[in-house]
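[job 0412] stage=complex_fold ligand=oxaloacetate ion status=START
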Amino acid sequence: MLARTAQHAVQRWGAAASCSATRRGLAAAAADGPTSNQFPPPDPSRLGTADLCDVYHPEAVDVVSQPLVQIMQPLFKDLGGHLRFRGKAATVKCFEANPLVRAALEEPGEGRVLVVDGGASMRCALLGDNIAEMAHKNGWSGIIINGCIRDSEDISKMPLGVKALATYPLKSAKRDKGLRDVPVSFAGVTVRPGDWVYADKDGVIVAPEELTL
Ligand SMILES: O=C([O-])CC(=O)C(=O)O
Ligand SMILES: [Mg+2]
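[job 0412] stage=complex_fold status=DONE, emitting C-alpha coordinates
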Protein backbone atom coordinates (compact mmCIF):
# COMPACT_ATOMS: atom_id res chain seq x y z
CA MET A 1 0.00 0.00 0.00
CA LEU A 2 2.78 2.36 0.84
CA ALA A 3 4.38 1.89 -2.57
CA ARG A 4 1.07 2.71 -4.22
CA THR A 5 0.67 5.76 -2.02
CA ALA A 6 4.05 7.12 -2.95
CA GLN A 7 3.56 6.42 -6.63
CA HIS A 8 0.32 8.36 -6.89
CA ALA A 9 1.59 11.20 -4.77
CA VAL A 10 4.44 11.59 -7.22
CA GLN A 11 2.03 11.61 -10.18
CA ARG A 12 -0.07 14.38 -8.71
CA TRP A 13 2.42 16.78 -7.34
CA GLY A 14 5.13 16.49 -9.94
CA ALA A 15 7.96 14.05 -10.09
CA ALA A 16 10.73 16.54 -9.55
CA ALA A 17 9.32 18.35 -6.57
CA SER A 18 6.92 16.16 -4.76
CA CYS A 19 9.00 13.38 -3.23
CA SER A 20 11.19 15.77 -1.35
CA ALA A 21 8.69 18.63 -1.13
CA THR A 22 5.99 16.50 0.44
CA ARG A 23 8.41 15.73 3.21
CA ARG A 24 9.84 19.21 3.56
CA GLY A 25 6.55 21.11 3.37
CA LEU A 26 5.09 24.07 1.59
CA ALA A 27 7.83 26.62 2.25
CA ALA A 28 10.51 24.34 0.92
CA ALA A 29 8.40 23.52 -2.12
CA ALA A 30 8.04 27.22 -2.92
CA ALA A 31 11.80 27.62 -2.63
CA ASP A 32 12.23 24.96 -5.31
CA GLY A 33 11.01 27.59 -7.79
CA PRO A 34 9.78 26.72 -11.26
CA THR A 35 10.56 23.05 -10.91
CA SER A 36 7.87 22.79 -8.23
CA ASN A 37 4.44 21.66 -9.31
CA GLN A 38 1.86 24.45 -9.47
CA PHE A 39 -0.13 22.69 -6.75
CA PRO A 40 1.43 22.81 -3.31
CA PRO A 41 1.76 19.47 -1.63
CA PRO A 42 -1.01 18.74 0.85
CA ASP A 43 -0.64 19.24 4.55
CA PRO A 44 -0.47 15.56 5.57
CA SER A 45 -1.66 16.34 9.09
CA ARG A 46 -5.02 17.53 7.75
CA LEU A 47 -5.72 14.24 5.98
CA GLY A 48 -8.18 16.09 3.75
CA THR A 49 -10.64 13.89 1.92
CA ALA A 50 -9.64 15.33 -1.48
CA ASP A 51 -5.95 14.61 -0.86
CA LEU A 52 -6.78 11.14 0.43
CA CYS A 53 -8.86 10.47 -2.69
CA ASP A 54 -5.99 11.57 -4.92
CA VAL A 55 -3.80 8.94 -3.34
CA TYR A 56 -6.16 6.12 -2.46
CA HIS A 57 -8.78 6.54 -5.24
CA PRO A 58 -6.43 7.53 -8.05
CA GLU A 59 -8.53 6.35 -11.00
CA ALA A 60 -10.81 8.96 -12.57
CA VAL A 61 -14.57 8.77 -12.15
CA ASP A 62 -15.01 7.30 -15.64
CA VAL A 63 -12.80 4.31 -14.84
CA VAL A 64 -14.37 1.32 -13.13
CA SER A 65 -12.06 0.25 -10.36
CA GLN A 66 -12.02 -1.17 -6.88
CA PRO A 67 -10.28 1.50 -4.85
CA LEU A 68 -9.29 1.02 -1.25
CA VAL A 69 -11.57 3.83 -0.10
CA GLN A 70 -15.31 4.29 -0.47
CA ILE A 71 -16.77 7.78 -0.89
CA MET A 72 -20.17 8.62 0.62
CA GLN A 73 -22.72 10.23 -1.67
CA PRO A 74 -22.95 13.97 -0.89
CA LEU A 75 -26.13 13.89 1.15
CA PHE A 76 -24.98 15.31 4.46
CA LYS A 77 -25.06 18.72 6.11
CA ASP A 78 -22.24 19.88 8.37
CA LEU A 79 -24.03 20.48 11.64
CA GLY A 80 -21.30 20.27 14.28
CA GLY A 81 -18.70 22.80 15.39
CA HIS A 82 -15.93 20.72 13.84
CA LEU A 83 -15.99 20.39 10.07
CA ARG A 84 -13.04 18.03 9.95
CA PHE A 85 -12.98 14.82 11.97
CA ARG A 86 -11.76 11.29 11.67
CA GLY A 87 -11.50 8.09 13.62
CA LYS A 88 -12.33 4.42 13.85
CA ALA A 89 -15.98 3.67 13.24
CA ALA A 90 -18.49 2.32 15.71
CA THR A 91 -21.94 1.73 14.27
CA VAL A 92 -25.62 1.76 15.18
CA LYS A 93 -28.45 0.62 12.94
CA CYS A 94 -31.82 1.88 14.17
CA PHE A 95 -35.07 3.32 12.93
CA GLU A 96 -36.78 6.25 14.62
CA ALA A 97 -35.39 5.24 18.04
CA ASN A 98 -32.15 6.47 19.59
CA PRO A 99 -31.41 4.48 22.80
CA LEU A 100 -28.45 2.75 21.15
CA VAL A 101 -27.12 6.08 19.89
CA ARG A 102 -27.19 7.38 23.47
CA ALA A 103 -25.69 4.15 24.84
CA ALA A 104 -22.83 4.24 22.34
CA LEU A 105 -22.01 7.88 23.04
CA GLU A 106 -22.07 7.22 26.80
CA GLU A 107 -18.99 5.04 26.29
CA PRO A 108 -15.47 6.46 26.13
CA GLY A 109 -15.15 7.57 22.53
CA GLU A 110 -11.36 7.28 22.26
CA GLY A 111 -11.47 9.45 19.16
CA ARG A 112 -13.95 7.25 17.33
CA VAL A 113 -16.68 8.26 14.89
CA LEU A 114 -20.19 6.92 15.50
CA VAL A 115 -21.87 6.04 12.22
CA VAL A 116 -25.65 5.73 12.56
CA ASP A 117 -27.87 4.27 9.89
CA GLY A 118 -31.25 5.72 10.84
CA GLY A 119 -32.91 4.55 7.63
CA ALA A 120 -32.96 8.16 6.33
CA SER A 121 -36.09 8.87 8.37
CA MET A 122 -37.24 12.47 8.09
CA ARG A 123 -39.78 11.99 10.89
CA CYS A 124 -37.71 12.43 14.07
CA ALA A 125 -34.25 13.34 15.41
CA LEU A 126 -31.76 10.69 16.55
CA LEU A 127 -29.38 13.17 18.22
CA GLY A 128 -29.89 16.31 20.30
CA ASP A 129 -27.77 18.69 22.34
CA ASN A 130 -27.65 16.55 25.50
CA ILE A 131 -26.40 13.45 23.76
CA ALA A 132 -24.02 15.48 21.59
CA GLU A 133 -22.57 17.21 24.67
CA MET A 134 -22.01 13.80 26.25
CA ALA A 135 -20.32 12.57 23.07
CA HIS A 136 -17.91 15.46 23.16
CA LYS A 137 -17.16 15.01 26.87
CA ASN A 138 -16.58 11.29 26.34
CA GLY A 139 -14.02 11.89 23.62
CA TRP A 140 -15.90 11.00 20.44
CA SER A 141 -14.51 12.76 17.43
CA GLY A 142 -17.70 12.84 15.39
CA ILE A 143 -21.10 11.42 14.50
CA ILE A 144 -22.52 10.71 11.05
CA ILE A 145 -26.25 10.09 10.91
CA ASN A 146 -28.31 8.80 8.02
CA GLY A 147 -31.25 10.64 9.51
CA CYS A 148 -31.97 13.86 11.42
CA ILE A 149 -30.73 15.73 14.49
CA ARG A 150 -32.31 18.47 16.60
CA ASP A 151 -31.04 21.25 18.92
CA SER A 152 -28.85 22.08 15.97
CA GLU A 153 -28.05 25.66 16.98
CA ASP A 154 -26.37 24.37 20.15
CA ILE A 155 -24.71 21.44 18.39
CA SER A 156 -23.20 23.79 15.81
CA LYS A 157 -21.20 25.42 18.64
CA MET A 158 -19.83 22.17 20.07
CA PRO A 159 -16.28 20.99 19.34
CA LEU A 160 -17.58 17.84 17.70
CA GLY A 161 -18.04 16.70 14.11
CA VAL A 162 -21.67 16.08 13.20
CA LYS A 163 -22.99 15.27 9.76
CA ALA A 164 -26.64 14.39 9.22
CA LEU A 165 -29.21 14.55 6.45
CA ALA A 166 -31.30 17.30 8.02
CA THR A 167 -32.69 18.81 11.21
CA TYR A 168 -36.11 17.99 12.61
CA PRO A 169 -37.52 19.11 15.96
CA LEU A 170 -39.33 15.96 17.10
CA LYS A 171 -37.54 13.45 19.36
CA SER A 172 -37.35 9.78 18.43
CA ALA A 173 -39.09 6.83 20.06
CA LYS A 174 -37.31 4.68 22.65
CA ARG A 175 -38.61 1.20 21.68
CA ASP A 176 -37.26 -1.14 18.98
CA LYS A 177 -33.71 -0.22 19.78
CA GLY A 178 -31.98 -1.64 16.71
CA LEU A 179 -28.49 -3.11 16.40
CA ARG A 180 -25.06 -2.12 17.66
CA ASP A 181 -21.77 -2.59 15.82
CA VAL A 182 -23.06 -4.27 12.71
CA PRO A 183 -22.09 -3.31 9.15
CA VAL A 184 -24.29 -0.46 7.90
CA SER A 185 -24.95 0.54 4.29
CA PHE A 186 -26.15 3.95 3.17
CA ALA A 187 -25.06 6.84 0.94
CA GLY A 188 -23.50 4.30 -1.42
CA VAL A 189 -21.00 2.84 1.06
CA THR A 190 -20.80 0.07 3.63
CA VAL A 191 -19.22 0.93 6.96
CA ARG A 192 -18.00 -1.89 9.18
CA PRO A 193 -17.14 -1.42 12.85
CA GLY A 194 -13.41 -0.71 13.00
CA ASP A 195 -13.25 0.90 9.54
CA TRP A 196 -11.62 4.32 9.39
CA VAL A 197 -13.79 7.33 8.59
CA TYR A 198 -12.41 10.67 7.32
CA ALA A 199 -14.79 13.62 7.11
CA ASP A 200 -14.38 17.25 6.18
CA LYS A 201 -16.21 19.96 4.28
CA ASP A 202 -15.72 18.09 1.02
CA GLY A 203 -17.29 14.82 2.12
CA VAL A 204 -16.76 11.52 3.85
CA ILE A 205 -14.53 8.62 2.91
CA VAL A 206 -14.33 5.20 4.48
CA ALA A 207 -11.33 2.86 4.47
CA PRO A 208 -10.70 -0.59 5.94
CA GLU A 209 -7.48 0.63 7.54
CA GLU A 210 -5.92 3.84 8.83
CA LEU A 211 -4.70 6.09 5.99
CA THR A 212 -1.64 8.30 5.84
CA LEU A 213 -0.43 10.93 3.39
O1 LIG B 1 -33.93 13.41 23.62
C1 LIG B 1 -33.39 13.03 22.59
O2 LIG B 1 -33.70 11.98 22.00
C2 LIG B 1 -32.35 13.85 21.93
C3 LIG B 1 -32.22 15.21 22.51
O3 LIG B 1 -33.05 16.08 22.37
C4 LIG B 1 -30.99 15.54 23.27
O4 LIG B 1 -30.08 14.73 23.36
O5 LIG B 1 -30.92 16.67 23.78
MG1 LIG C 1 -32.47 18.13 23.46
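The chain has a mean pLDDT of 86.
[job 0412] exit 0
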